[in-house]
Amino acid sequence: INLVMGGERCISYPSVKASLKTYNSKNTQLLWIDTVPCLKTKQTSVEEKFSNDNILSQLFNYEQNWPIKKYPLLPHNTYIYGVDYFTKEEQQIILNENINVIHKNIFTNNMPVSKPLHISISINALKNKYYPSQYIENKNGIHPNALIDIFKTYKKNIVGVDICDFNAYACERNSNIQSIYFINQFLKHLF
Hints:
Layout: E1 2-5, H1 12-23, E2 29-33, H2 55-59, E3 78-81, H3 88-97, E4 100-102, E5 117-122, H4 144-154, E6 158-164, H5 173-188
Parallel strand pairs: 1-6, 2-3, 2-5, 3-4, 5-6
């Protein structure tokens, strides 16, 4: 399993692209765990270039004039989990492109268990009661046990994981210890 950990959401792009290239982009699935879908287009993105709010759009090659076109992520192989709110534009992209959305309180095993799976996780999607070193406060986030269950269910299929917005030193010492403990427990189920 390839593991990438870092601060910004943009680390997900090369991590997911590596899995798509290595394991055939037509078969590889992506489980996108975040509070935001990152489906902005060039017209609606805050920045006109590559940014955190348009990473999924770029992985799909949704905009034809973005530079990297090899090994695109297929939208129907994408599962978005943990997002509470979608803009009208994002809803339209999800409908048009047949992207799967999983409600954060009802994770069902509707992803095929036979395909390679890359999991991309923003720490911000988790309840900060369990992972307090977050940039944002998320009292209604995903419970860590849900992630552990996903890892147990799909362990044989997981080919890559990236963990972004990882900042174990964003808070006071006790929060740091709790956050590092959680990540340690989380990774035990991967390897």
